[in-house]
Amino acid sequence: MEEGDEEKRGACKEEDGGLQHLPSAVIATILTKLDIPSLCSTASSCRSFHSISSHILSFLPDFHLLDIAPTIDLLRPLLPPNPNLRSLKLDCGRLNDSSITYLVRPSLHELCLHNCENFSGMLLLEVGCKCADLRSLSVGSLGEKRGHEILVSDVEELIIGCRQLESLSLMFDVSRFSHQKFAQVWATAANLRVLEIVYIDSVMMIELLRPKVGPLQPTYHMQPSALPCLQKLRLSVDFITDSLVSAISKGLMSLTHLDLLDAPVMDPDVTNDLTNSGLQQINLHRKLKHLSLIRNQEFMFTYFRRVNDLGILLMADRCSNLESICLGGFCRVTDAGFRAILHACSNLNKLRVCHGTQLTDLVFHDISATSLSLMHVSLRWCILLTNLAIMRLACNKDLRVLDLGNCRNVGDEALRVVSSLPKLKIVKLDGSDITDLGLLHLAQSTASLISLSVRGCKRLTDQCISAIFSSSFGQTLQVLDLSNLPNLSDDGILSLAKSGVPVSELRMRECPLIGDISVMALASMQVKGGWCGSSLRLLDLYESGCISGLAFRWFKKPYFPRLRWLGVTGSVNRDLVDALVRNRPYLHMACHGEELGSGYWDDKSDGFCWSEHEEVDELEQWLLEGGDESDEIEGEMMEE
Predict the structure, then answer these.
(1) What CA–CA distance (Å, rounded) separates 23 from 396?
(2) Are 180 and 207 in contact (CB under 8 A)?
(3) Which of 205, 279, 320, 499 shows a CA-CA span of 20 to 30 A to 111?
């Protein structure tokens, strides 16, 4: 054993002696305040903590482990019998139906399972049979792999068995079910207040919400519509139509949040589209606080071509209580329509407009004369906007999020004004006309910025890194996107590494001058706080032109100890990628250009805070050891 390991074990033994003066109950009380990754990290530090942590897992009320996807063998010691378990959140990417017994527990009030592609509908069936007190359920990607069947009867058993259910997220395609049978399932979902479905046919949803006629009764004896208590509805559908909007507005009288998204594969005809008439049906009961209507451009450039200023004007009059509005793909709406929203909705704090092709600076000409206090502004692909619009927006001193992605005419002068916003947390400038000088202006800000994206800003050079980290402005950054910068080289990344800022997410996709030196610099950087090694949780190097096989050696342990997501060009380095997967089985690898990210940020926090005290990722070490106590608490690093 190496000398450093001997010293560390000696320290652990000394600590064990000191712990004898503290009752185990006191230590256990302290450790119960930790999250699961931190608890596992603590368990790896010494035998006393290992024993106490193992005991805590048998009565812990919350078990949240979304950073990695454990196998059932590794999960078993972390999920012992626990009658006090109330909340379980887990990445199920390595689990299947054989794991259901460990996941479905009668004591649960909240169950959140991501990446359930290896499960069948049996998961929903078992939840309905065993979790009668469940209040919140989220299931992602259920049955996506071929051969895993989901029946409408499985959903029915879930709804019938979980009568206390208040929040339900079905993050899989439910259009596979019979429309009529699926609509009948929801008759007992009387307590449901939040419903999210990742994909459903609009006709299917209309059928679900349509009031039913009782058996052998005349048509005027209508039964109440399904989901009478629903307050928040989020759907991705084939087409957003007048009929769908009307059914939602008439059938859901308690609705406060409505979020609709479609991504047509062809231009819809008038019967499968949203028009001015449909907009007039929105918020009939005047309870809406949040409205989002987005036509996604994923498959083709298609818009709400049958909506113009008149429809927006009529909607704005009925939606004056809105606090948040998101509109995407309204290509015929001009400044008059958007200004109507700003002047009618006096409580608005979040404004998002995407592909507002006719939105200009005039929308914000007199925004200072309104009572608005905007906190979140996103104007992606509003290509007619210039610096002047941003200067007008800067009167909102409470702005925390500013997204100007692909506003091509926004440049350095806008950033000079943006730097005066004291509460900014997130800034996205993708595809804008900024230069290194603009970022130098932004660096004068007193705001504690957490996330900055300059993806595709072609005029930026290595000097932009110095501009970002030259003052206290960059010291709080934890998410940085430098993708598609043709002039960014290894010299810029060396400057980043020398700054010692503990960045958690770094994206450098499609940067032709980024190479092995950047990887070596990031792997060996000295992070402020006293420990060595990169703080990165996510690193995206897809199509970075100068990355070779040498860089892959630096992705093995002990380098990048906290890395959870890595993007590389797999077709060029297939053998090296396969070897790395074997070396680090809990590393999420993306080799085909897919965007990286956990997607599991906690809405109640900034979502970017990570533990900074350990030099080696003890969570992964705990899992690799199976959580079993042994004479060697530390364990050995994985062999190649």
Answers:
(1) 53
(2) yes
(3) 205
Rg (the chain; Cα; Å): 27
CA distance 489 to 240: 45
Phi, psi of 75 (to 5 degrees): -80, -30
CA-based torsion, 312, 314, 317, 318: positive or negative: negative
pLDDT over threshold 60, residue 591: yes
**CA separation, residue 35 to residues 41, 56, 610 (Å):** 10, 12, 11
Provide the pLDDT confidence category of residue 603 given band limits of 50, 70 and 90.
very low
Distance of alpha carbon 9 from alpha carbon 40, whole angstroms: 18
Give residue 330's pLDDT.
97
Long-range contacts of 366-370 (CB under 8 A, 24+ apart): 367/342, 367/392, 367/393, 367/395, 367/396, 368/392, 368/395, 370/342, 370/343, 370/346
15: pLDDT strictly greater than 70: no
Residue in 238, 231, 229 with CA at minimum distance from that of residue 205: 238
Query: Could you tell me the pTM of the whole model?
Result: 0.87
| 211/397 Cα distance (integer angstroms) | 47
Look-up: residue for tokens 């809406």?
Answer: 288
Higher pLDDT, 597 or 125: 125
Q: Within 13 A of 100's CA, how many CA atoms are on the CB side?
A: 17
Q: Which residues contact 227 (CB under 8 A, 6 or more apart)?
A: 186, 189, 192, 195, 208, 209, 251, 252
**Neighbouring residues of 171: CB distance < 8 A, sequence distance ≥ 6:** 138, 139, 140, 141, 142, 196, 198
Contact 109, 134 (CB under 8 A): yes
Q: How many residues does the chain have?
A: 640
3-state secondary structure of 32: coil
Are 355 and 329 spatial neighbours (Cβ–Cβ below 8 Å)?
A: yes
Residue with tokens 């002039």: 487
List phi, psi (to 5°) of 409: -95, 5
Give yes or no for residue 613 having a pLDDT over 80: no
Match 């609009």 to its residue by tokens. Answer: 202
Q: And the tokens for 61? A: 């009320």
Model pLDDT, residue 13? 47
- Distance (Å, whole) CA 405 – CA 183: 40
Look at residue 451 and give its three-state secondary structure. strand
Strands (E), 447-562: 451-453, 479-481, 505-507, 538-540
Residue at 372: amino acid letter: L
Intra-chain end-to-end CA distance of the chain, in Å: 19
- The span from the CA of 497 to the CA of 234, in Å, is 41
The rounded distance, in Å, linking the Cα atoms of 369 and 395 is 10
Cis ω before 558 (30° cut-off from 0): yes
Return the sign of the alpha-carbon dihedral for residues 242, 246, 247, 253. positive
List of residues 6+ apart from 605 with CB closer than 8 A:
none
Contacts of residue 562, Cβ cutoff 8 Å, sequence gap at least 6 = 533, 534, 535, 536, 537, 610, 617
**Measuring CA to CA, which residue among 623, 633, 627, 619 is closest to residue 45?**
633
640: exposed, middle or buried (Cβ count in 10 Å: 0-12, 13-18, 19+):
exposed
Coil/strand/helix, residue 439: helix
617 in Cβ contact with 584 (< 8 Å): no
Instruction: State the amino acid at position 246 in one-letter form.
Output: S
**DSSP one-letter code for 212:** P
Residue 56, token pair as written in the block: 């805590």
